[in-house]
Amino acid sequence: MASSTDQQDELAHDDLEKPQISQLEAEEDFEKRSKKLVRKFDLRLLPILVALYIMSFLDRVNIGNARLYKFEADLGLTGNDYQLCVSILFVTYVAFELPVNIFLKKMGPKNFIPLAATAWGLVSMCTGFAQNKGQLIGLRLLLGLFEAGFFPGVNFYLTFWYRRSELGVRIFYMFTASAAAGFSGGLLAYAIGFMDGIRGWSAWRWLFVLEGIPTILLGIASYFILANDPLSATWLDEDEKRLVQTRRDLDNTSLGPDDEGGKVQWDQVRAACTDWKVIVLCIAQFGTTVMLYSYSVFLPTIIRALGYSGIQTQLLTIPCYATGAVVYCAVAFLSDKMSRRGMFAVAGCVVSCTGYAILLGTADRGAGAQYAGTIIVAAGLYVAVGIGLTWMPNNLPSHYKRATGQGLDFTVANLSGIVSPFIYRTGDSPRYVLGHAVTFGCVAYAGVLLAIVSVLLKRENKKRERGERDYVLEGKSEAEIAKLGDYHPSYRYIW
């Protein structure tokens, strides 16, 4: 027979086990409910947002496909007129990105996204009716105006719904849409090429009109699908909304006040503008985005210069974009699983630099080596650009600092859209040594900066774990502590 002491020990042991079992069950239930909620977000939001991004990217870069179908001759473009028409879009695109992102919450994503998409779809369609350079320039400026803020706004919008560890894959879904737009755009341009002469129209006119119409329809549909944020979504019940708030608390996305009577928090805007992480990541993003725009717009031109016909060129762009999409897919999932960004972004830069080195080193060795170089560039391109875009919002927990940081990131990055067309000059065909060399340099410096940021963020986390940043809390009120955001000693950066 067991002694009284043994029985008491067993009871005490049982009492200790019950809370542990209860806690384990609660954690498992939370994870199960959280996965179900995230799946609901994915099915509701991502299809329409991805479709809109595909169309926004197509409408922005299909001028590269149009060039193969008498585009310049029909509009009387000579010299560097084509490069001017490509780059002019980014004047309005860059000018309005940051203001749109800061005021997105006040405008409401449910209103802004449908309105912007419908407007740029109309402008894209109208481009098919342009008769001269002046009209084309005006339409490109309008396209930049209406597309400004869409992609940074959507990236910011996704942070309302997903945790930091979930964001990489969702931005992958969005950003890989540019690769999908590339190869589907090439395939569509190939098919539309056979419409040349129908109703007396050149194929490039059909290209703009037929790619503008779906954008308009998607823009209208998005109004009935999107919600401003999870707490205002009519398709979430009260339990799901409470779960949303719990997920935010666990993710430290509540560090820093999100609302002060609906007013813009200008102190958080200033904090973003003076944060070294934001500044360095913006400069790095400029370098990788030079590659994105020069590659996306001039890939058909580069391949055509290797001696292929217009129809063959459209088809040969498809493997390049498909390679980029597949590689980015694998890397995005791995990056989220490991909660690491820097090492993958740097690796993407290294791969793309290798591709540009091949393009520069094989200029006189035939089309095969040159084409292989374009595929290798694509393998690193979407990783370098996409992971970089994910990294900044991961490390800015407060609403207006995150909005400003992302807005600055896209604004600085898209300045490259003004530069890129002029480094691939018409007179440099067929090898484009200047364009390849400048892009190589931009991607190389971006890789170095991304590596430095990763090392410094890792070092900062270790200092916080050792308590070396606890002094930050001394002498501060609760309101002041609430505004520390990512400077709070308990916050850990994703590096």
UniProtKB/TrEMBL annotation:
GO terms for molecular function: transmembrane transporter activity. The keyword Transport applies. Residues 1-20 are annotated as: Disordered. Its main location: membrane. The chain crosses the membrane at residues 41-61, 81-100, 112-131, 137-159, 171-192, 204-226, 278-303, 315-335, 342-363, 369-391, 403-424, 436-457. Pfam families: MFS_1 (PF07690). Keywords: Membrane, Transmembrane, Transmembrane helix, Transport. It is a multi-pass membrane protein. Residues 45-462 form the Major facilitator superfamily (MFS) profile domain. InterPro entries: MFS, MFS_dom, MFS_trans_sf. The keyword Membrane applies. GO terms for cellular component: membrane. It comes from the Eukaryota. It is found in: Membrane. This is Major facilitator superfamily (MFS) profile domain-containing protein.
